[in-house]
Amino acid sequence: MSATGRSPVRRVDDFYETPAWGVRAIVPHLGLRPSDRVLDPCCGRGAITQALPSDLDLVGLELDAGRASEAASLGHTVQCRDALAPEPWPAHRVLLTNPPYRLALEFVERALREAAPRGVVAMLLRLGFLESKKRAAFHQQHPADVFVLSERPSFTGRGTDAAAYGWFLWGGRGGRWRLLVAAR
Ligand SMILES: C[S@@+](CC[C@H](N)C(=O)[O-])C[C@H]1O[C@@H](n2cnc3c(N)ncnc32)[C@H](O)[C@@H]1O
Question: What is the mean pLDDT of residues 25-39?
C-alpha cells in the first residue's frame, strides 16, 4: 500500500512489498485451515503468499507481467490480469493483500463482494484509511477489526514508511482494534 513515501518518487503501480514479519503477525488471526485457498488479488512478486504456511492453496492476481511471472515461479497459481476488471476472482476462503494505495477502497469493496460466506478479508492499510468523509459511509456499513502493527513496516528495505499501518480484517465481529507486537 505504501505511501507516503519519504521518497518524492512513487513506484509504478504502487509496487511496495510487504515484509514477511508483517504477514506472520496476522496469520494467527485468520483462522486458516490446512488446504485453504488464499487469494492475493494484487500479489506483486508473491511476498505475502510466500510468507504463509506452505500447506495452503495460494493464488494470486497481478497486473504486471514480470511480477506475475516471479510470483508464479514460487509455485503459486498466478493470473496476470487487472483485478478490478469485471471478470470474477478465483473462489477463495481467505483473502490477504496489501493493495495499491490509490485503489485501496476499490480493492476493499471488490474483495467484500467476492468474499465467500464466512470468508475472511484482510488488507494491510494505513491507519488513515479509518478517516475521511469519503470513507465514512463505508466504515459504518462494514466495520473492520483493526490489528495495528506496533512497528512501522519498511516496504522498500530502506527505512520505514511515514505512516502507521494495520491489518483491517472483515469476517469477524467488526469494530474492535488490538495491537500486534512485531516478532521478527
Ligand atoms: C503495494 S504492491 C503489493 C504487492 C504484494 N501484495 C505485496 O504485498 O508484496 C501492489 C501491487 O498491486 C499491483 N496492482 C496494481 N493495480 C492492480 C490491478 N488493477 N490488478 C492487479 N494488480 C494490480 C501492482 O502491480 C503491485 O504489484
Answer: 95
